[in-house]
Amino acid sequence: MSQVIISLGSNLGNRALRLSTAISKMQIDIGDILFKSSIFESESWGFKSENTFLNQVLSFQTELIPEEILKIVLKIEKNLGRIRVSDAYESRTIDLDILFFDDKIINKEALQIPHPRIQERKFILVPLNEILPEFVHPISRKSIRKLLDECQDKLWVKKFIP
Asked: What is the DSSP letter of 82?
């Protein structure tokens, strides 16, 4: 069994419902939840948007390989209305990213694990630190807590209160 850590984000439509629906689908198709962060609200990162994001991070126990998980999360995104127009940052109904897969390092065109910009994004590090502060990034060899302490991102991230 392996551990896969996935981030979820949404800033269009019923954001909380989309996160919940994606989580239910991932439980069925990927595996059991080991850890689940609170939902956090944040400013958009990398582009301007009037809509704030809801973000969450989950850890699953799985028997799947990373490529199978990627196919599943892309299908869930599509089913929840995600339309990929370009590689540019933009508002989205749902965004699912594989952050880590055990301590593996994968560098393929379609799949990079760990996710290459984790250390730059407070909206990922804050929920990740809530559930796995001592998890060590396999490339930087720093804990999530340390990465959050060093993060230069000045955008706000706060717990979501519905």
From this structure: -
Rounded to an integer, what distance in angstroms lies between the CA atom of residue 80 and that of residue 139?
A: 32
Q: Which of 6, 19, 4 is closest to 94 using CA atoms? A: 19
Q: Where are the domains of the chain?
A: 2-159
For 12, which DSSP code? S
* CA atoms of 121 and 123, how far apart (whole Å): 5
Q: How far apart are CA 114 and CA 96, in angstroms?
A: 14
Q: What does CATH list as the number for 2-159?
A: 3.30.70.560
**Amino acid of residue 97:** D
In this structure, what token pair is assigned to residue 5? 């850590």
User: Contact 125/99 with Cβ under 8 angstroms?
Assistant: no
pLDDT digits (tens, 9 = 90+) for 135-154: 999 999 999 999 999 999 99
**53 phi, psi to nearest 5 deg:** -95, 150
Whole-number average pLDDT of the chain: 92
pLDDT tens digits, 23-56: 999 999 999 999 999 999 998 876 677 888 999 9
User: So what's the pLDDT on residue 87?
Assistant: 62
Q: Residue 9: pLDDT above 80?
A: yes
Report residue 111 as tokens.
């799949």
Rg of the chain's alpha carbons, rounded to an integer?
A: 15
